[in-house]
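User: Quick sanity check before I run a bigger batch. Here is a single chain. Can you write out its predicted 3D structure?
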Amino acid sequence: MKDKQGLVQEQDQETAGDRPSSKLSALGEVWKVSFKLGLTSFGGPIAHLGYFHNEYVRRRKWLDERSYADLIALCQLLPGPASSQAGIGIGIIRSGLLGGLVAWLGFTLPSVIALVLFAYLFKGFDLGTAGWIHGLKIVAVVIVLQAVLGMGQKLANNRSKATLAVLALGVTLIWQTAFSQVLLIVASAFIGVLLFRKETAGDPSELPVPVSRRTAVICLVLFLVLLVALPLLREQSANIWLAMFDSFYRSGSLVFGGGHVVLPLLEREVVPSGWLSQNEFLAGYGAAQAVPGPLFTFAAYLGALIHGTAGAAWAILAIFLPAFLLVVGVLPFWSVLRRNRRVQGALIGVNAAVVGILLAALYHPVFTTAIIVPYDLVLAAALFLMLTFWKLPPWVIVLAGAAGGELLAWS
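Assistant: Done. Predicted structure follows.
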C-alpha cells in the first residue's frame, strides 16, 4: 500500500502534464501540438479557444481549468487576436519566451501559407470578377453575422450593455477617423468601471509565468514606443516598407475583439491608400474563412498582393508583434490585476462596445459590398441556416458559398 507522500508525488506528476526532461524536447512538443491546432482549428476565435481547452487542459494538462480561464480573460482584455494570444501565453507558460514564439508560429503558419497561395492565384488569374469570389464575400456576411449574434448574447445581454453596444455602432459608422475606435474603447472602459465594477467573479488563481517583470516592462515600453514612433517616422519617409509596417502594426495594436473587428481598420489602411481595391480586399476576407487558424493571417494575403511573399511576411510580423509584446508584458502581472474590481468592470464595458463595432463591420463594408441583389440575400440566408442550425463546419459553408456564387453568376 502506498503511503500519503507517494500518492501526493504521483498526483503531482499527473498534473504536471508529463513535462519533458529538456528545453529542446519541450519546444518540440509545443511545436507539434500548436502546428496540429493550426491545421485543424476551424471556426473562429471562440472555436479556437475550445480546441485549446480540449488539447492543452483536458488532454495534456498543461494548465488547470482556473488558470486557463484566467489566461482567456487576459486575452479578451488585451487588444489583438485572442486565440493567438492565448496560444502564445500557453507556450510561454510551458516553455518560456521561445515556447511562446514556437506556439504562435505553429498555429499561424498553415493559414499564412494557404492565404499567400490564394493571393497569387487571385492575382495571376484575374479572379476579381469570378462568381465564386462573390460567393466568398457572401460567406463573410454569414460568418460576421454569426459572430455578432454569439458575442451579443454573452457580452451585451442586458439593457446597459446593449445600449453601450448600440452607441459603439453609431460612433463607428458615423465618426470614421484613425483614432475614433481607440477613443471609443477607452470611453467604454471608463463606462464599464462606473457601471459594471460590481459584476465580479471569484478569487483568481496564480499563473506560473517564467518571465521576469523587467522583461515584461521592456516589452510594454517597446509596444508603446513603436505605436507612437511608427506614424511619426512614416510622415518623414515615403518608404513603402515603413508605411506597411506602420499600418499593420497599428491595426494589430488597436483592435479589440479579435479578427473580425480588425476588418474595418485594415480596410481603411489598404484600400484608400491604393494598395488594394475593395474587390480584392473582400475576396481575401472571404477566403480567410476557408482556412484554419487565426483570422489575423488575412494580413498575409494583403501583404502578398501589395509586395509579394516578402510583403506577406512583413505584414504578418507587423500585425502580430503587438499581440506578442502585450502578452509577454502583461502576463506576469495578471494575477494581481484580476483581483481589481475596476479592471473587471472595464473589461465588461469594452466587450459590450466590441459587439457594436462588430455590427458596424457587418454593415459596412461586408454587407454593403456583398448583398447586391435579392439572390445574394437568399444565398446568405441559406448559408447562415447551414452554419447555425445544421451545424455544418465552416469549410463546408465556404465551399457552398463559392459554388452558390458561381451559380448566381450564370443565372
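The chain is about 75% helix and 0% strand.

User: Great, the batch can go ahead then.
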